[in-house]
Amino acid sequence: MIRPATPADVPEIVNMIRELAEYEKAAHEARVTEEQLHTALFSDQPAAFAHIAEHDGEVAGFTLWFLTFSTWRGVHGIYLEDLYVRPQHRGGGHGLSLMKELAAICAERGYQRFEWSVLDWNEPSIGFYEKLGAVRQDEWLKYRLTDEPLRRLAGRQD
């Protein structure tokens, strides 16, 4: 079963974010707090959205996503920030069901792009996405500013 996340899901989502960060060998980067996530998902103007996959009443996985906007297409799209299915639930169709839910949202709302990133070493996920018909975007390089370089560019040293 796939359903929108509720405020009661926030602690479990934070736990799964940490599990995902550990899997991606970046546990030290997962700093999100329950309060931050609650605000991001459930404020008057949410910054992000989440869906939960359940199996026999147990949380099996989640997606966390936000809206993008394409100047070329002139409409919103979805950026999938996180897709995670707990190891004991993998292979049961939960990841596919979560992806189908987001694709359905795109179709219902007229969004024309559904995008995400995947680590280049994560062969199981790459294979999964390519089976869905996703096309790798090798011509685009991803850049990121965080921590000190971001503060320096902003002219802040705090």
Automatic annotation (TrEMBL):
Name of the protein this chain belongs to? GNAT superfamily N-acetyltransferase
Q: Does the keyword Phosphoprotein apply?
A: no
Output the superkingdom of the source species.
Bacteria
Ranges for domain N-acetyltransferase = 1-155
Name of one Pfam family that matches:
Acetyltransf_1
Looking at the keywords, is Ligase present? no
* Coiled coil region boundaries: none
Which keywords belong to this entry? Acyltransferase, Transferase
Q: Which PANTHER family match?
A: DIAMINE N-ACETYLTRANSFERASE (PTHR10545), GH14572P-RELATED (PTHR10545:SF29)
